[in-house]
């Protein structure tokens, strides 16, 4: 999934359900989200918390998700929230690292 444009909290909170529906339809268990072109990605701590919760509630351990996010705005908080609640996710600053992690066993 490629996301572009300006960061919008309500859009990002709706993406997990959209992604899950597509994964179920296509019988996929791995997803790469490319958000490198999104602007305004230095989001608040609370928004990161709620995104991490939404990701864990929606995907749990059944979907492995790699997120390529602008490196300067990665602080691992959303990832940590999601991981602590059972999700299988990593946030990285480039596509190659994200693909490598996603395809590893």
What does this structure look like?
- It is built from four helices and four strands.
- The chain is α/β, with parallel strands linked by helices and 105 residues long.
- The chain has one domain: Transcription Regulator spoIIAA (2-Layer Sandwich), CATH 3.30.750.
- α1 packs parallel to α2 and α2 packs parallel to α3.
- The model has no long low-confidence stretch (mean pLDDT 96).
Q: How many domain modules?
A: 1
Portion of residues within helices: 40-55%
Shape field: globular
Question: Mean of residue pLDDT?
Answer: 96
- What does the radius of gyration come to? 12 Å
CATH level 1 class label: Alpha Beta
- Taken in chain order, the helices and strands follow as EHEHEHEH
How would you sum up the major sheet? 4 strands, parallel
The helix/strand class is: alpha/beta
| Beta-strand content | 15-25%
CATH third-tier fold name: Transcription Regulator spoIIAA
CATH architecture: 2-Layer Sandwich
| Uncertain ranges | none
For the terminal residues, how far apart are their CA atoms? 21 Å
Tell how many strands the DSSP assignment holds: 4
Q: How many alpha or pi helices?
A: 4
Q: Mind sketching the topology for me?
A:
Elements: E1 2-6, H1 9-26, E2 30-39, H2 45-59, E3 64-68, H3 77-84, E4 88-92, H4 95-103
Parallel strand pairs: 1-2, 2-3, 3-4
Summarize the structure.
With 105 residues, the protein is of the alpha/beta class. Helix content is 48%, strand content 24%.
